[in-house]
Amino acid sequence: MGATRLPDELNHRARAMLRAVAAGRAEIACSCEPDLYIDGLWCCDQYTAHELAHRGLVAPAGPGRVGQRVRARLTPAGAAALGTVGEAA
């Protein structure tokens, strides 16, 4: 049996994480399993953070070295999932 994945409908926590990214409050670690930091603190639900990145809803705003923290950005898909299409950068 495969790993459990987020359902197509985002839960409250995932939507809150997307809102934090959209507000410019998040950083993401450049990695194949990118960790998310909100307001400078490590996000407590890294499973959801990884899923948001793997689903293409959040991404680094620019290049970085492996392990380096860079500003996180909401992708167009992330903005659509959140219902804020005009706010994607």
Can you walk through the features of this model?
It is a single chain. By secondary structure, the chain is α+β, with helices and mostly antiparallel strands. It has three helices and five strands. The protein has a five-stranded antiparallel sheet. Strand 4 and strand 5 form a beta hairpin. Helix 1 packs across helix 3. The radius of gyration is 12 Å and the shape is globular. It starts with 11 loop residues before the first helix and ends in a 7-residue tail after the last helix.
Q: Mean pLDDT score, rounded?
A: 87
Q: Give the amount of beta strand, in percent.
A: 15-25%
Q: What letter string, H or E per element, gives the SSE order?
A: HEEEHEEH
Rg from Cα: 12 Å
Q: Name the helicity range.
A: 25-40%
**Helix/strand/pairing category:** alpha+beta
How is the largest sheet built, in terms of strand order?
3-2-1-5-4
Q: Count up the helices.
A: 3
- Gap between N and C termini, in Å? 37 Å
Question: What would you call the shape?
Answer: globular
Largest sheet: 5 strands, antiparallel
Which spans of ≥5 residues are poorly predicted at pLDDT below 50? none
